[in-house]
Design brief:
8 helices; 0% strand; 224 residues; homotetramer
């Protein structure tokens, strides 16, 4: 009986270990998502442009609301995909930890390009710069995310044996597409930055359903 | 014995899965609640209006303290109701995850209308705009929350069999009332925005006790 | 065997319930503690007073560092005492939840008086106002904290039977002292606000060791 | 069977206790890491220097991006080392709790010197001051971290018996090096602050791999 309790202890301990890495990671995701709202300026009655009335001020900020919503959904999708990836890893090593910190760094940085996008989206001259800065951050995240998957799944083979080679390849392809799509939105900014923004929305619609499907599939793999 | 440990592992794994979604969700709630304080300006000795003395500056900010307290209690109520809803779901699917992200987005956005309400509450000309912006955000949250419940409880029937049809209907009605009450405060703003603010306080008093009762009831349902 | 797994499930479920309330609460404490740093102005090279050089700017902000450290330790002490109180509760009810939200509200508000204290501590004219605002917030927290204990421990008797009446009384007295000490620092501000600040530091030294002892004692009570 | 459930309860309770301290700690780490992005100014179209165009504004902020990345990796390393230290403690006492709060205080303070470093890195006159402020904060953290280890591992001997004396000594040396390295970067600032910055990067490269190795080793020690 003592040994059974010991086993339970070990299970809890292991649970706690993984739990702490995930707690740190989830914390960064949740905070980054909530910090996005800080990029939205709160108009005050003593602002120089306040004479036009609060209604105009609130409406004039629509690009900031749009950028907030865009990035909030991005963080949600990214968090879910990160969740799926780690649910397939059965062990962790130095390289995984280091690459994980790298991906989290880009997530924590996201409030900056989001604030820039919200502030310059209505600016005809510099909209393209804001779009490239935004898409560049997400592309950098995507590259780090793919490096993490390549290292964990192919280099050190840390994925669960319950994940078949076919399923693993499907995940590789799904995640590889991301950075290329963001590179495409950067290219589109050379024509018209509004096309890039339409691209961001399309990428979301494209990723939302597969991501939700991946979450469900990951649960199925684990319960085999 | 191995199989018993395996079962414990599965229980922990499942616990961890639900735990991660909740950790992300709780993080957003707790963080949004704490960020509300950032909407309150900290007066500094070198501010243009500092000559009147700190006492006047601190007192002049009463609308910001009021808006902070109002939104803090709102987040608390909303968090408790979200907790109750998810305690009745026995499984999750893509639609639930997507609608959940939508509700969290409005929670994360709340510091913005709270800051606006605090800054413009004492402004006779634009108080109504601030009130409509605030009530509109909460109404949008309420609609998303009701969509989530309708989808989870009626469309994909993800609620626990331990929850009776009668209890489910009671929850549906309780949550359906919310957006209508906020629509009413928007209508009241056309007469006098101060009536809307009285309305916000009344909605709180109206929801505080039932919410606390729901939390206790949800625990009873689960322990059946 | 199925029933054993079921029992484990119930234990996990209960664990998860308490866990969510604590996750929300711990989140608010941890965020409030970290947000305190945002009250410290970051000097920039294009600030009007930057000509004096960064060294003078950094040194001139010592009151902000002091207020940050004072509040950080306060949040730590308050968090530990909250932890001790809840470790003695074996069940929760509506009143406990509502009063808990009230105490968390004052914790989340703390960055505001901390920023005010840091900005006005070196201001001879208005130092007393900043001190009263700061001490008032902590006194309000203390009153809410005592109400929560009185309600939970005496009104609805939610404390563990393993906590003896003598131990319960000792806790009541320990916590009752807090608001009176802060009231005293408010009174001292009428003489000289620097006495109040010395009082804040003394209260810390007074609470640090008993709090640490309470944490250890609470663990002993639970393991009986 | 009842007793077995009771044991499971105790295990969960103990798990929960440690969990709460870690939740608070992880919250502060994750939050401090994410707050680092707030030190980066978001350029707006109505800024006085906006006429030069967004591209120049975004590029001109490279020192802020560098300081952000430097501190983000620092928080990651520090968090992993803190994790390793606490995984070797099998019990906690007052002194450990108090010293833990002290280390967390420096972590929570880090966004301030990071913001200062990012704002003044390109300033030839005051770069050294920013570097000393930054290195000083990390040195202070390092001293508190070493005090915590010395107190826990040698004074009250709270480390696991599974950790050999040789392993304990190796950890002591690894952690003792940190503050001396930061003292060295402060000395280098007297010659040229750019040398100190190269030093920060070198310290990272020096600590990254051993830290990742420590994390893996700590897991091995625990599973003995």
């Amino acid at each position: 009986m003592a040994s059974r309790t010991a086993q339970a202890e070990v299970a809890l301990e292991r649970h706690r270990d993984v739990g702490r890495v995930e707690a740190f990671s989830d914390g960064v995701f949740a905070f980054a998502a909530t910090l996005l709202a800080l990029g939205i300026r709160i108009p005050r009655p003593d602002d120089p442009d306040a004479s036009s009335g609060l209604r105009d001020l609130v409406i004039a900020q629509w690009p900031s609301y749009f950028a907030f919503a865009l990035s909030f959904v991005t963080v949600g999708i990214v968090w879910a995909n990160d969740h799926v990836m780690f649910s397939h890893f059965v062990r962790t090593d130095r390289g995984i930890v280091l690459l994980k910190v790298l991906t989290l760094m880009f997530v924590a940085f996201l409030p900056v390009p989001t604030g820039v996008l919200g502030s310059w989206l209505a600016n005809d001259r510099d909209r393209a710069v804001a779009v490239v800065f935004y898409a560049g951050t997400l592309m950098a995240f995507g590259i780090a995310h793919n490096l993490l998957w390549w290292y964990g799944a192919y280099r050190v083979r840390a994925t669960s044996p319950r994940l078949s080679a076919r399923e693993r390849r499907a995940l590789t392809i799904t995640w590889l597409v991301g950075p290329f799509l963001y590179a495409l939105t950067i290219a589109l900014a050379a024509i018209d930055a509004r096309l890039s923004i339409a691209g961001f929305v399309l990428i979301h619609l494209l990723y939302l359903l597969p991501t939700a499907r991946l979450v469900v599939a990951a649960q199925r793999v684990r319960s085999r």
